[in-house]
Each structure stands twice: as structure tokens, then as C-alpha cells.
Amino acid sequence: MRLRVGAATDTGLVRNLNEDVYIAHVDRGLFLVCDGMGGAPAGEVASKIAAETILEELNRVSDEHTTPRTNGEQQYLPQTNRLAEAVRRSNSAVYHHAQEDPARAGMGTTMVGVWIRQHIASVAHVGDSRAYLWHNGELVPLTRDHSLVEAHISAGILDRQQSLHSSQQNILLRVLGREVEVDVELNEVPTQPGDFLLLCSDGLTRTVEESALSRAICELRHPQQICDFLVAAANGNGGADNITVVAVEVRSSLPRRVFHQLRQLTTGGPRA
Amino acid sequence: MPKVILQFEDQTLKDYALGHRVTIGRLPDNTVVIDNPAVSGHHACIVRDADRFILEDLRSRNGTYVNEKQVYRHALQNGDVVLVGKHQLRFDEMAGGEAAAEHDEAALPNLGDTVYLTTQKHKEMLTKLRSTVTPGRPAAAPTRLGVLRVLSGRADHVEYRLEARTSFIGKSEDALVRLQGWFKPRIAVAIGRNGDGYVATPSGGKTLVNNQLLAARHTLKDGDVLRVGGLTLEFRTK
């Protein structure tokens, strides 16, 4: 299995600063999007600290040293718990920076991260940055926003269509760096060749519909082109916020791809 | 003209000039509409009585508070803070000039200012949310536990319980169902457990489900038979 990645981030048309940060390390299979909050210069600092801490922690901590915090985490693979631990440490890092520097008090950041190892994508998130899995034309959400409107949707008081027009969209229930501890939500999904994973900040998902995300992947099938197209689409719809997209394509290994292409050439058979 | 200023989390949402009678509640026929589950349909009202403004609780579910004390009827004084659900209404008697918002322009908060609700406030809110949510919408039923029963082949158990979020069948040490032999794949199949059930994803080697090659994700159904690495396994939920 091989991965191909594309990424794009843009300030949008309204803001002066880009507080979003992404990390896309194909060789490690690590992809992150963080959307900072707290105004200049704190927001961009928070997202940067969070992303860098997660990266460092994953380099440092090994699977064996990660013990599940709660019963719930025992259900997850060691790699997923390791990702969760790195995110918790990034929470402390942002929190302590904010405590030490009054100019940065109150800063925080969302984060969504996907770590792909041995065909399994471990997903961790805090806040309203999202991850999706696309396969066979279907876009499956891998995260659920930690926001007030999402809580209202799951309580049955708001439907998804109404939520897009809610004035409370910007109220988050979880962020990194605002409290001593953070509850990290986890997910796992086995991947297979042909899958795409999409990570994005709310600057994309509030301006571009999910059906359009799916269509972009379906028609372009190229990670960088997908990202560029989606950023342009968000700006086309007003670009009210910073926009960040990371797209990861899961491909079969090179010999297998060559084999399939040769077979297609020689027999005209279907392409796997 | 005196007014009340609607605030949420230190953010000013809108001003309302106080006329003869102003009503506050969740339903759209109120003067001050607060679309929040902690707020009753018709929660409270403010009525003008000569030169005073009287706040009255309309038997709301979660109560009306002034300066953190619960009130049923209260003559507002300049600077009083009325709490309705999690929203605050600040009474400003001295406000001069034209009524700022007799008309209904939507007071959309600036997209830029993301607001964070602290865990404490969130918990209070959820408690209220639960008390206001009408029953009848069942919570997502937890997935029933799936098992793989060995029908034939050499395995170290008769039955494997699919408790983890992701279970593997393969030669790997991490595998729940461990395949023996030189040419077996490290991971042949990954079985994911989510809210909707169990999904088998092929990962390496050749796996048959009900005698068909497993080429893509497959949602497992009771009675599905998997053939992988010399084992025949039956999927069942309990």
C-alpha cells in the first residue's frame, strides 16, 4: 500500500491571518489539521504548537509505553492510543504556553489527525475540524464535531439542514489548550486501495457542501487537484474563514499497479 | 429608550428596545427569540408599568434569574442582568436615541470569533438539555457483539469475540484470529466495529465470503461464512 497526498491552506477572503496549520507526512502516514482560535497572534501560535507537539510525541513515545486511559480506549489498537496520548500532550503544551504568556491567554485550537499504519487509519479529533473517508463515491464522516449545534442534532432538537443556518455554529464544546485535560475522540478505519481520506477545517465545511466534496474527489481523483479545487470553491462562496484541506489517496503497491495496468493494456480488462 | 442587550458568553448578540410589552422565549412569536433548548417556548416577559419595567417569569421550566437570584416578578433596575437559559439580558435604562433593533435584522455572530464553552458550562447546559429534550428518540443502540465461530481448520479457539474496535485475521502477532503457515498474509482481513455493525475489509491474501472473493468492504451479516488461510469461520451476533 502506498499513499499519495495533497494539501492546501488559504487565509480566505475576509481574515487577515491564517490560523490554520496542517502537517502531511506521507512517509510516516501522519496527517493533521489544526484550526487556531484566540485572535492574533495567539490563534496561529496555538495551532502551530499543537501540530508540532503531536508530531514530536509520535516520534518519541513508543506503542508499549502507551497505556489506555479509560476502559473505552482498551478497545482501540495501540497505534490509536498512541495518537490519543500525543494529542493529550499537545493539549498540555498549548495550555501551559497560554498560562505563561498573558498575550496568549485563552488561545486554543481544534485538531483532527489521521495516522495510517499497516492499512489502518487511526483518527483522533477535538473540536470542529473534520475527517472523511471516501470510497466508491460515498463520503463517510469519521468525526463528529464537538460543537453546540452537533450536540443539538444528536439530541434531536435540530436537523442537519437547519444547523447550517444556526447562529451558534461557532460555539465549540471541546478545544485543545483551554483546560488542563482534554477528552480526545478516537476512531479507526481499515483502508484499502482506491480510498481517499479528507481532513479539513470548518472554513471548508461551512462553505462547501458534503456532496460537493464527494464530487470533487470522484471527478478529480488527484489529491493536490482536489485540495486546490476545494479551496477555490470555499473562496468562491465567500471565503469567510481560513480554509485548509489535506487529501490522502490510498493506492496499491507499485508492482501491483504496474501489473494491473499491463493487464489492462494487453487484455483491455477492467482496471482494479 | 430603555433596552435589553442579549448576550451569550460575553458576546453581544442584539439589543431590544423595551416597548409596552416584550416577550422572551424559544418560539418565533416572541420579541426576543432565544433558540436554545434550555429556554422555554414562552419563558418570560417584560411589561411596562408607568415608568418601571416589570420582569415576569412565565412559569418557565428552568426559571428566570436576576443577578443570579431566581425571580418570578421583579422590577428591573439599571444594570440588572437577567439570565434565561445560558443567555443573558442586560437591562439598560439609560440607553438613549433611537431603538437600535425594533426591526429584525439577524444578529449573526462574526464567523471569526469561535467561542468555547468550558467543560463546566457545557455540563450545566447538557443537564438542562436532557431535561428539555422530549423522549421518543431512541439513543443509538449499541452494536450487538459479533463472534466468529470456527467451522473447520486448525485454530487456537473455537470462537473469537469481536470486542475491539478493529480485529485482525492474519499471521500478525496483533491478530485476534492467528493464521499459521509460511505463506499466510500478515493481515488478511480487518474487521471494524462501529455503531452500525461489523465491516470486513480485505487487506492481503485471498478471503472468500460466502464463496465470493472479498474485494471491497463488506458489512457482515449473521450467518456469513468466511474462508481465509485454511480456516472456515462463521459470523454471528449475540
Please explain how this structure is put together.
The complex is a heterodimer of chains A (272) and B (238). By secondary structure, chain A is α+β, with helices and mostly antiparallel strands. Chain A contains 8 helices and 11 strands. Chain A has helices spanning 42-60, 78-100, 148-155, 160-163, 202-205, 210-220, 223-236, 254-267; strands at 2-10, 20-25, 30-37, 108-117, 120-126, 130-135, 138-141, 171-172, 185-190, 196-200, 243-251. Chain A has a 5-stranded antiparallel beta sheet with strand order 1-11-10-6-7. In chain A, strand 4 (108-117) and strand 5 form a beta hairpin. The longest helix of chain A has 23 residues, at 78-100. Chain A is globular, with a radius of gyration of 19 Å. The two termini of chain A are 14 Å apart. By secondary structure, chain B is mainly beta. Helices cover 6% and strands 42% of the residues of chain B. Chain B has one helix at 119-132; strands at 3-8, 11-17, 21-25, 32-33, 44-49, 52-57, 64-66, 69-71, 73-75, 81-84, 87-92, 115-116, 146-152, 159-162, 166-170, 177-178, 189-194, 197-202, 207-209, 212-213, 218-219, 225-228, 231-237. Residues 97-112 and 133-141 of chain B have low confidence and may be disordered. The A-B interface holds A 14-15, 37, 75-77, 80, 108, 118-120, 135-136, 148, 151-152, 155-157, 166-168, 170-173, 175, 178-179, 186-192, 206, 240-241 and B 9, 13, 35-37, 106-109, 111-119, 122, 126, 129, 133-134, 137, 163-166, 172, 174, 186-187, 190, 192-193, 199, 201-203, 216-217.
